Amino acid sequence: MPAVRLLLVLDLAGVFAFALDGALTAIRSARVDIVGVMVLGVITAMGGGVLRDLLLGVTPATFQDWRYLAVATAGALLAFFLSRQLTHLARPIALLDAAGLSLFCVIGATKALEFGFGPVQATILGAITGVGGGTLRDVLMNRIPTILTLDSHLYAIPALLGAAIVVAAAIGGIGAWWVAVAAALVCFALRVGSLRYRWRAPAPRNFGSGPGPPETG
Amino acid sequence: MPAVRLLLVLDLAGVFAFALDGALTAIRSARVDIVGVMVLGVITAMGGGVLRDLLLGVTPATFQDWRYLAVATAGALLAFFLSRQLTHLARPIALLDAAGLSLFCVIGATKALEFGFGPVQATILGAITGVGGGTLRDVLMNRIPTILTLDSHLYAIPALLGAAIVVAAAIGGIGAWWVAVAAALVCFALRVGSLRYRWRAPAPRNFGSGPGPPETG
Amino acid sequence: MPAVRLLLVLDLAGVFAFALDGALTAIRSARVDIVGVMVLGVITAMGGGVLRDLLLGVTPATFQDWRYLAVATAGALLAFFLSRQLTHLARPIALLDAAGLSLFCVIGATKALEFGFGPVQATILGAITGVGGGTLRDVLMNRIPTILTLDSHLYAIPALLGAAIVVAAAIGGIGAWWVAVAAALVCFALRVGSLRYRWRAPAPRNFGSGPGPPETG
């Protein structure tokens, strides 16, 4: 299997994971009907790429590719019909979601570099590719995006780190496939580690410097 | 009156209905001032077309045409000054809103096809043209967009169906004006029927399969 | 110091003020971590310009200029580390925010005119440049954008007025730098005056025509 095809398969796997996770989140947290489940699942899966492309100034690409729409729709439909059974699979779904985050931040940063954006912008656009879909979903579900709060453990920071590794390697003249793999693995490990060990990003001092706020999510 | 001019008049009627309805919703539900009424009315009327154009990758067209802005502003101003009187006209306003939805989904799908987008994308973009403005308004008013919930009865589904009819006819080589009229009528009838007979889209099983949730809206 | 450089310095001062104010608002009102503070600060500072450029149909320009990102990041970081001390500086920060609003509406309207947009559109785009960032921040913080409500006193209206003055002068053939300065000063004075004397925009009659609603913000 050539590398381009492998990348497509991995990207579609990320889309599937995000759609499944986004649709399940919608079912758990809001009084949505099938339209809401499908819309929120597809937006979780494809919103990050669309936001990135709008900031790049290009026509949103994933939206034009029917394979992305089909895979996102399949993930959301699966969540709709099997929501009860999937509730017991929270842990593997969280791993899939971390895998999607890792792939998206690497792919997003790579695309931004290809379009000639600077290193800081490419890093940010990589992270936006990873976290933008879930952020749009949370806004539509009328809650503060979890990536902005302490409840998400580390989510945006692994995406920024993964994107930054790709960008730093590109500046150093290294654009090999194993850099992308390594960057995705670092993002994945940091995300999963933060879930496992309950790492959190620092919070502003207004919230006290003691043992931290109680768990709410 | 030539067909192009008729289409413009119908489109502007839809903009007017959406602006009126959006502004009245704002007045009813939030502690807004005249800026809020105008902004929410105009966004309800023009947001769907702007979202569609951003996804098409073109400069938002309706925003550039002063007639759309003028008609949307007039609808929102009317709601501001006559909000009490208009409260008694909920039923005709709901019909106007359904007419706007029907026109927008047909026009949006047609525009997406003209720009060379695929059938699935054109159907989705038609629906987004119809429902996007109200969705943006609800997000700004800090509530879950009603089109995602059971409270809206059928709203996105008629828009998807209307857009799909236009797209299917275009694939079959039929681009006549009566196809657009028929598609709009199907969307309109399904929307109004769902309000009259309280049809709802299926909900995920988490909400129980009994007699359905109590009416809240 | 040539005029172009002065304009850049003023623009960056506005970005700094908006980032500081946006980050402090986030710290005060939501359970955010450092990611949330940085994201909300930077979006407050740069969101208005990005929205304007999306509506103009051009690649968001401020996002591509590293100086804007650097200054916005610095403002948000300062708020993160010095949030307690800065709480006592609410008044000078409100003045800085009014200065940012005044600069942004003038710069936004000028840019829209340069791209050939009509007078009404240029006025609206100027106002969006000024108020768009705070609106996006409020949406992400899960509250109704204050510019839509009575709580903001006059905020969008000074921005519209400042932009309208630039546009009217341009129509009259006057594009001199002192017009821009005068427009910004009018916007600034009206904004600060509305805070000092608690001016409000009219509200729809549903809220009663008595002495007005109680202060909530």
Q: What percent of the residues of chain A sit in helical stretches (DSSP H or I)?
A: over 70%
Beta strand % of chain A: under 5%
Shape of chain A: globular
User: What's the gyration radius of chain A in Å?
Assistant: 17 Å
Q: Largest interface, by Cβ-Cβ below 8 angstroms: which chains and how many residues each? A: A-B, 29 and 32 residues
N-to-C SSE series of chain A? HHHHHHHHH
Main sheet specs of chain A:
none
Number of domains of chain A: 1
The assigned structural class of chain A equals mainly alpha
User: What is the CA–CA distance across the termini of chain A?
Assistant: 41 Å
State the assembly state of the protein chains: homotrimer
Task: Report the count of strand segments of chain A.
Answer: 0
**Total DSSP helices of chain A:** 9
The averaged pLDDT of chain A comes out at 88
Low-confidence stretches of chain A: 207-217
Secondary structure blueprint with pairings:
Three copies of one chain form a homotrimer.
Chain A: H1 3-29, H2 34-56, H3 61-64, H4 66-81, H5 83-87, H6 90-114, H7 119-140, H8 156-171, H9 177-197
In a few lines, what is going on in this structure?
The structure is a homotrimer of 217-residue chains. Chain A has 217 residues and is an all-alpha fold.
Description:
The structure is a homotrimer of 217-residue chains. With 217 residues, the first copy, chain A, is mainly alpha-helical. The first copy, chain A, has one domain. Helices cover 73% and strands 0% of the residues of chain A. Chain A is built from 9 helices and no strands. Chain A is globular, with a radius of gyration of 17 Å. The model of chain A is unreliable at 207-217 (pLDDT under 50). The A-B interface holds A 26-28, 30-37, 39-40, 50, 54, 58-60, 63-64, 66, 69, 80, 83-84, 139-142 and B 54-57, 117-118, 120-121, 124, 135, 139, 142-145, 147-151, 155-157, 200-207, 213.
